[in-house]
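tokens incoming
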């Protein structure tokens, strides 16, 4: 079994255990992610300088600070987001009660770009975790230092059946897009976006 198929199979199996739907589980995962980012902060800044020549101030201001802010926002509002919400019922059913129960999609794929490689990998990851999903991150091959630290950081915090990183060139992205994901988050060019959309359509996958 190739790496992409194995990751998706493992994550789907883990998702079906129901653990990721537990609110406390999600909160703990986000808290662990925040601690990991704080621990790796200097290495993140060094990687962004190596790949994109970003100064420490730019690396922090345009990437790390934004991600930490999204983490804090998610932790503050997660309970509210996940709570059932009563909505108006059609007047044809006067005794009816309508409630929306937020549910996770399942296994998400996050394809990050080269220009904001940390922010646009970890920002979508926060949303995926907060919503109760498993996720696979595909960092850009054009930012190898950020790609490697993303792999190391995630591997240190999470089991790969929950959150995983798959590094590699275009072939890695192609292999991942052959698999059935429940949601794909992609940031990049229009040309590659068409390829992602086509792959998503073949599996009826939601994408943004």
């Amino acid at each position: 079994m190739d790496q992409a198929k194995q990751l998706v199979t493992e994550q789907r199996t883990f998702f079906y255990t129901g653990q990721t739907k537990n609110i406390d589980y999600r909160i703990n995962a986000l808290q662990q992610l925040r601690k990991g980012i704080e621990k790796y902060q200097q290495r993140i800044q060094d990687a962004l300088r190596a790949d994109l020549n970003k100064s420490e101030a730019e690396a922090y201001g345009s990437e790390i600070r934004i991600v930490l802010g999204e983490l804090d926002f998610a932790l503050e509002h997660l309970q509210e987001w996940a709570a059932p919400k009563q909505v108006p019922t059609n007047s044809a059913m006067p005794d009816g009660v309508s409630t929306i129960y937020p549910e996770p999609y399942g296994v998400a794929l996050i394809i990050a770009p080269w220009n904001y490689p940390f922010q646009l990998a970890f920002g979508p990851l926060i949303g995926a975790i907060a919503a109760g999903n498993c996720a696979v991150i595909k960092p850009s091959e054009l930012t190898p230092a950020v790609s490697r630290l993303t792999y190391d950081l995630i591997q240190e915090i999470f089991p790969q059946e929950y959150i995983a990183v798959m590094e590699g060139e275009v072939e890695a992205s192609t292999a991942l897009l052959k698999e059935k994901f429940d949601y794909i988050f992609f940031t990049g060019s229009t040309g590659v976006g068409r390829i992602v959309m086509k792959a998503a359509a073949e599996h009826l996958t939601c994408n943004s």
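note: The CA atoms of residues 2 and 106 lie 21 Å apart.
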